[in-house]
Amino acid sequence: MTARILVVDDIRTNIKVLEAKLTSEYYEVITAGSGPEALDAAHGQKPDLILLDVMMPGMDGFEVCRRLKADPDTAYIPVIMVTALGDPEDRVQGLSAGADDFLTKPVDDIAMFARVRSLLRVKLMLDELRMRERTSASLGVISPPVPGLDEDYSDASILLVEDNPRDQLRLQRMIEGQFRIEIIADGAEALGRARQKEYDSVVVSLGLQTPDGLRLCSQFRTTEETRNVPILLLVGPDDQKQLVKGLEIGVTDYVVRPIDRNEFIARLRAQVRRKRYQDRLRDHYQQSMEMAVTDPLTSLYNRRYMASHLSTLLSQSASQHGTAVLIMDLDHFKRINDTHGHPVGDEVLREIGNRIVRNIRGIDMACRYGGEEFVVLMPDTDIDSAEVVASRLLHAIGDKPVTVKAAVGELLVTCSIGCTSSSDKDTADTLLRRADKALYEAKSDGRNRIVYRRSDESGA
C-alpha cells in the first residue's frame, strides 16, 4: 500500500538516507528538521506515519510525540521513534509519550519496512472506522472522544501463551497487579479460549512448540472471533527474521528478551489502549447508527448511508487504487416471492446478506441497495483485485442452496454482478451508474455472471 511518511531529523544526511530508502519503495516522503517543523507538517500535510528522531535540539522527539498524541487532529498518526539510545528506560519514556514503535540506529531496512507496513495496516483500519464516524456525524451523530494516555487498565484481560514453566512464572510476576492474566501452555487451547472470551491483548512466545509461535499468531489473525485482538510477540535478540515475518502476518507489537518489566507493561498498555479505542469506535458507531443507516431486514447498511459514505471515500481517499464498487442483483427473485410468499423471500435476502458479509474484508462495506439488489464498497481496491472478490461472492451465493424455515426446504439462488473501480474524475453517481450498467449487461448476457466495466471504456 502507498502512504505519506513524515521523516523528522535535525541532521540533513539522516533525512536524505531515509528519504531515499522510502522513496524506493514508492512511499511519498515529506521532511522536517526540528520538533516545531514536525508539528506544523503533521497538521498541514496529514502524514500516514511519522519517523521521528529522538535526539534533537530544542524540542526532543519525546516532547514532539507527546504533543502529537495530545492533539485530536494528530493523535491517530502512528509514530516510530528512531534513536541511537538502547536503554529500555528510553523506550519506556517513548511508549509513555505515545510512540507506537522504535528503530535503533543504524536502521535495518528489513526491520524498518516490516514495522512501517504493520503500522500502516492498523492505521488503514482505524481510518476506515473514523471515516464512518465522520459520515455518522454528517447525519447528526457525535463522534466519541479521543482516547487518553492515562486510562486505568488494571481490569484489562491478558492471555499469555507460553509453554516454558520458568518464563510463565517470571512473566506472571511482571504483570500481576497491572492487568488480569491467564496463562495457557498449549496454543490450540489458547485459540479455543480466545474464541469464547474476549481479551484485551494476547502475548505469544515465539518459542512456543504446539503449534509454533508464528503459526499460532497466523491462526489468531485468520479466525473471525480473534482477528482484531492485539498480539504482542516475545522474541529473542537473534530472532529478527521471525519477527519480520510476524509483523507481516499481523503481530501488532513485540518485546525482546531479556524482558524489561517496565517496557513490557508500557507496551501492553499501549496495545490495550488501542484495542479499547477500536472497540469504542465500533460500538459507538453500531449503536448510534443502527436505526438510522441500516436495513431492518438484513441488518446491512441502507442505500442512504452507502451513498453518503461513497462520497466521503471518493473525496478523502489518497489511494492510487481507488474505490471499487460491486452491484449485485438476485436472479429471478420475483419468482420466489410469487411462488413461496414474501416471508420466504425475506429469509433468502437475510441469508444472502450474511453470505456477502462473510466473504468481504473488514474495511469493505455491504449494503442493501433496494429490493433484491446489494452493493459492496471496497476502499483502496483496483478492478483487478475487485474481480477476485466478485468471483468469490458469485460462488458463495450460487454454489450452495439457501435453507429456509418454511416447508420449502432449500432454494438455489444465483446473482448477477456489475463491477467497476473509481478514477480521479468519478463522483458517487457516476461510479454507481457505471456499475449499474455493468450489472445490466450481466443480466442481459444470461445472468449468474459478472461484467467488469473500467472507467476508460466507452459509455462509462
UniProtKB/TrEMBL annotation:
SMART domains: GGDEF, REC. Keywords: Phosphoprotein. Its EC number is 2.7.7.65. Residues 321-455 form the GGDEF domain. It catalyses: 2 GTP = 3',3'-c-di-GMP + 2 diphosphate. It is an enzyme of class 2 (transferase). It holds the Pfam family GGDEF. The modification 4-aspartylphosphate is found at residue 53. Residues 4-120, 157-272 form the Response regulatory domain. This is diguanylate cyclase. It comes from Ferrovibrio xuzhouensis. The lineage of its organism: Bacteria, Pseudomonadati, Pseudomonadota, Alphaproteobacteria, Rhodospirillales.
